[in-house]
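Handout, section B. The chain below has 359 residues.
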Amino acid sequence: MSAQSEFLWYIPNDVKSGHRGDTGDANHNSLATLTDQAQAIERNGWRGALIGTGWGRPDTFTVAAALAARTTEFQPLIAIRPGYWRPAHFASAAATLDQLTGGRVRVNIVSGKDDLAAYGDEEADSTHRYDRTKEFMRLVRRLWTEENVTYAGEHFRVANSTAAPRISARDERRHPKLYFGGASEAAERVAATEADVQLFWGEPLADVKERIARLRDLSQRFDRDLAPLEFGLRITTVVRETSSEAWSVAEAKVAAMAKKAGAGWNDHGPPIAVGQRRLLDLQARGDVLDDNLYTAPGKYGAAGAGTTWLVGSAEEVARSLRKYRDLGIRTFILSDTPYLAEIERQGRTLLPLLRDETA
């Protein structure tokens, strides 16, 4: 793949063990276990990891700060929610962590439904929630790049506000990138104008191609005033030495999931978001789409990035990921369980192929 491509892993950050088939362990979310994962991510060639968020999970920013302190190159992609954070508070916290880590912070803005009332949020209406997200992203970026910001919007206000310490520009990076997901019309309007990177879940190539074209068109229609929107893929990858072994493992995982009615695989509760519905609707098109996109997990309770899997040998999965790269995907966030073992396996077998243009 191109040197411009980058590869991250995933840390679920969940109080419950056994997330998406992970090894059950009472210490699964201890600092020692999470540090083992972050250091393995760093050691095996991954750039960093997306760290999951949601009310009822450990605080994502705190976990990211702890792991950054125990690594030297690991870049946390910190999932956060407007409403849980205020813009100036978050801008200051992120600027501080970015300064302490030498510019390793990335941010994933999440607008999907959560247990809003539990932490004092009230913005349940989807349209207003995305309008608020748009304001949040624009204001945070201003606080990182401007001095004495005064702003009065529909959702947020600040007066003479400056985030300190100041974000240090590093080559073309003026501030931490803002990653964003969502497939609804409201979400795509936010992505087209405010996000640095739009993340997709594992949809077929033709569907991703269509969404990229639409987002690029929206960016032009809404007079985007930022650098061109980039694109990323968050997907489960089941990789083994041979194709037959990989499919045997994948089918066994789905069979075990079916026996438990998807317990441990769904951390995206109701209502079903537009992006999740798109994944579930793929089942009507077949259990396997494109070359090796496995849709069956969604039938038995898998959700989010666990709904569809790329399955095969390292060579086959690398070939499929290159096809997404050719559509314009630059960032790849992969995972499988057990998390620690797969960090090492896929770092050893898959990543070298993705970095080799002649593979």
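Note. The mean pLDDT is 92. Compare this with the example in section A.
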